[in-house]
User: Fold this.
Amino acid sequence: MGIERWLYRVSMRLRSLFHGTTLDRELDEELQYHVERLVEANRARGLSPHAARREALLAIGGVEQRKEECRDTRRVRFIDDLLQDSRYAARALWRSRSFTIAAILTLTLGIGATVAMFTVVHGVLLRPLPFPEPDRLFLASLSPRGPFMRQPAMSDRSYLAFRAGEHPFEHLAAFSTYNGNLTGSDDPVVITVGSVTTEFFYALGVAPLVGRAFLDGDGQEGREPVVVLSERLWRARFGSDEAIVGKTAVLDGVSHSVVGIMPPGFDFPRKAQAWTPKVIRIDGGNSLMFPVLGRLKPDVSVAEARAQFAAQVRRLPDQPDGDTTGWQVGLLPLEELVVGDIRRPLEIFAGAVCLVLMIACANVANLLLARSSGRRREIAVRAALGASRLRLVRQLLTESTLLSLAGGAVGILLARWAVPALLALAPAGRIPRLESIRIDGWILAFTVVVSATAGLVFGLVPALRLTRRQFAGTLLPGGRTVGTGQERIRTALVVSEIALALVLVTGAGLLAKSFLRLRAVDPGFRTDNVVSLSVDLPGSVYASAQKLQAFHQDMLTRLSGLPNVAVASVVNWRPLGTQYMNGDFNVEGRAAAPDFNVDKVSVGPGYFPAMGIRILQGRDFNAGDTASSTGVAIISRTVARTMSATEDAVGKRVTLQSNPNPNDWLTVVGVVDDVKPYGPSQPFHAAIYQPYLQVRRPFFLSHMSYVVRTRSDPARAIPAIRTVLRTVDRDQPPASIALMDDVLNAATAEPGFHARLLGVFAALALMLAVVGTYGVLAYSVSQRTHEIGLRMALGARASTVLWMVIRRTLILSAAGVAIGTLGAWLATRLLTTFLFETTPTDPGTFTAVALTIFIAALAAGFIPARRATQVDPLVALRHE
Assistant:
C-alpha cells in the first residue's frame, strides 16, 4: 500500500507539472460543485439566495484561498514560480538588450575558457583509463630518481625476486618500448613496439580482437618469434585481413608469426603499434630498469597491497639503504605513468582560468549594480504591492542565473573551438590521452553547474543591495537615493579585478622571460643548415661491428657527394636525441677515476665542423683513424681540465673501461667545447669522443644519426638524403629525419607553450579588468554629471575636472596593484619548477607588470575623464 500511495503522489505531481491547466479547471469545477451544494443546503434552511451564497463562501473559506491551498498540496508550486520568474526575467533582459549582450559576451569569455580548460583536465586527469577496473592497476616502483629514470620502475633483479615471492597482484608484468623496422609490406616503416612479458595483456584485462595473447614460453630461445599487432597497424598495413593470424610479419629483419590483433584504440604503452614477448634474463655486467604493472588480487585492498609491498621491498636486491630520499618506492596508480609530469602544469592552468572566470563574474556584478540604479522604482512598486524581500531576491537571482546560463551556452560553442586551438599550442606528444579529450555529457553538466554557480555568485550582492533600499523616496516623482554603499562595492570589485589580472600577467611575464632566456642559451653547437637522419639497424641483419661500420661508411660517402652538402658525418648519441650513454672513465697515471661521468660518444670524421662544435686544441678525426690504427679520442673542455689544469691534454691517454686492457687506452688528439646534449635548460656535459671505426661493440653502432650541413636551404636536401638511405639498404626506414633547427625548437617548445597559454589567459584577464575599470569610471562620471556641471558653472577648469577622474583611476589602480603584487608574490612560487634562470619574485618582471597595469588603467580612465571635461553646465543643471 505504501508503494501504491507513493506512486499515486508521484503521478499526481507529474500531472500537476505537465497538465496544470486541466487540473485547475477540474479544481474550479469541484469547488463550484461544493459551493452549490452548500447554497442548496442554506436555502433549505430558509435563507435568501444572497445570504445562502454568502454563508456557503464563508464556510468554504474563500474559493481562491482554497485553490491556492490545493495547488500547494501538489508540491510543484516552486516549479511554477520558477517558470514564472524565468519568463519575467527573459522579458526584462530582452528589454535591456545592450546590457544583456555585454553581460553574455563577458560570461562567454570566462565560462568558455573555463570549460575548454576543464575539458582537457577531465580528459587527461579525471577520465578513467580505458581498462576494466582501472583502479586495481598499479605500478610497482623501486627506482632512484634521476635524469635517466623519470618514471616508476624496477630493475631486472628486483622484478624477478618480487615476482618469485608473495605479492599482492593477480597478474604481474614488465614492459618497455623500442623502435622496430617493419618490412615486407609496402615501404619499410619504423613503428613503436611494446616489449612485454606474457602476463601483460591479462594484467590490463584486455583480450585480443582476433587470435590470442602471449602464452608462457613465448619469446624463449628455440621458440618461433611471435608478435601481436594493433588494430590500427592491422588495418593500415595488412588491409584488415583476419587471415594474417598465423602468417608472418618481418620486424627488424626477423619473421614473426602474428598470433593476435588487439581491439581498436588499444595502444598502451606509448602508442605502441605491435607487441613482442619480453624475456628477462640477468646480465652480470648490466642491470636494466623498466616499468612493472600489476592488477591487484580481488580480495586485496590497496592499503593491504601497499603494506605488503613495503614489507617485501626490504628483501629485494636493490633496496635503498635506509634513506629513500631521491627514490620512487611504492605502489602508484597506473595513471601516474600515463599522465606523467603534465599534471602540475594542467593544475596551474586550471587555477589560472578560474581567476579569469572570477574577473568575468566581477565585471558582470558591476554591470548589474549599474543597471540596478534604473530599476529602483520597479523594485519599489513590487515591494509596495506586497512582494517580500526573499521573493524579490529570488527574482533577481533568476535573472542573473539566466544570464549566466546563456553565457554558458555560448561558452560551450567557444570551448568547441578553443579546445583544438589549445591542443595545437602544445608541443607534439606533450599532452597524453588526446583521444579522451572531448566535450560530452560530463562537460555539459560541468558547464551547467559552473554557469548556475557563477550566476548566483555575481548576482547575490547586487540583489541584496537593490532590495535593502528604503523605497519611500523612490516612489515620489524625481525621487533619488544616494548609493554610497553600492559605489564602495563597485570600487572593491574593480580593485579585485585589477589585482587578479596582475597575478596572471605577472605569472605570464615570468614564464615569457624564462622562455626568452632559454632560447638565448648557447648549447655549444649550431643547428643552422643541418639535417639529421637517424637509423636503427637490426642486429639480425647487421650483427657485427664490421657490417655496421661498412653501412655507415657507404652512407657517408654517398651523403658527402650530394650537391649543396658542405660536410656530412655520423654520431651515435646525437645532441637533443632520445638515447645517451653515460659512464665513468680513467686517466693514465691516476690511481682513482675522476668523480664525474662522461658521455661516451662515437662519431665520424667531420662531426665537429658539421655540428659547429669548436675544436680548442689538436685535430679532428680523419680517415686514418681506423680499427687497425692506434686508438684515439677527443675530449671535451671539462675532461681536459680534470686531466691537467696547466698542461696540454693532447697526447695524454684515457680509457672508457673500468678494468682496461693495453688495447683499451686511447690517446687524446684533440679538445673541444662542452655541449648541452640534453637540452638548453640542462647543464653542460663532459664527453669523450671515439671514431666510430675504432668501436668494437655493435651496441654503440646500431643506432646512429647522420648530420649533414648544407651550404644553403637544408630542407631541399631531405629528398636526396632519403634516396641515399634507400640506395644503401631499401629495407631500412629512417627512424627520424628532421632539420636540427626544428629539433632545437622542439627542445624549448614546452616552456614556450606554458608562456603562450598563460599569456592568453593573462591577456584575457587584463582586457576584462580594463573594461571593468572603464565601466566603473564611466558610470561614476554619469552619476556625477550634476556635480560636475555645478563645479564648472562655478568656474572649475577642465583640467581640474580631468584630474578629479584621473585621481580616482590612480587610487583604484594603486590599490589593485598593491593587493595584486602581494598575491603574485605568493602565487608565482608555484612556477618555480617552470622557470629558467628567473626567480619567481623577479623585480624587473614585477615592476614591468605594475607599470603595464597602471598604464592600462589610465587608458581605461582617460575616456570617462575626457567626457567629464566636455559636460555642458547649463544642460547638466537643466536636466537635473
Notes: The longest helix spans residues 389-425.
